[in-house]
Specification:
Blueprint lengths: L3 E4 L2 E3 L5 E7 L8 E7 L6 E7 L4 E3 L7 E6 L4 E6 L8 E11 L2 E6 L3 E5 L2
Parallel strand pairs: 2-11
Antiparallel strand pairs: 1-3, 3-8, 4-5, 4-9, 5-6, 7-8, 9-10, 9-11
Length: 119
């Protein structure tokens, strides 16, 4: 079974930066959409950012202007550059690739990587 593998999480001070990366464990063909989600302790998982194959991006209001999602279509990888990090950004971050067709959708998920913002 294909899984996504995230890397780049860790502990950072407020105001610092981290870059998360995501790749599939094996070839999965072209992917229409890539996304990052996060889940903080005691809270529901929330969508952070998405990017289409054509490069259209969307961000949650809480991260606009601070986070940047990008992708490499040739390598089928996604990245999330996180700047000006705040303690409230502390969460497990999950990578998500998905295809959609009509009313259908197929998702791939990573296991998550911990991001902790603390002084």
């Amino acid at each position: 079974q294909v899984q996504l593998v995230e890397s780049g999480g860790g502990l950072v001070q407020p105001g610092g930066s981290l870059r998360l990366s995501c790749a599939a464990s094996r070839s999965i063909g072209s992917i229409d959409n890539m996304a990052w989600h996060r889940q903080a302790p005691g809270k529901q998982r929330e969508l952070v950012a998405t990017i289409t194959r054509g490069g259209t991006v969307n961000y949650a209001d809480a991260v606009k202007g601070r986070f940047t999602i990008s992708r490499d279509n040739a390598k089928n990888t996604a990245s999330l550059q996180m700047n000006s990090l705040k303690p409230e950004d502390t969460a497990v971050y999950y990578c998500n690739f998905y295809r959609t067709w009509g009313f259908g959708r197929y998702d791939y998920w990573g296991q998550g990587t911990q991001v902790t913002v603390s002084s």
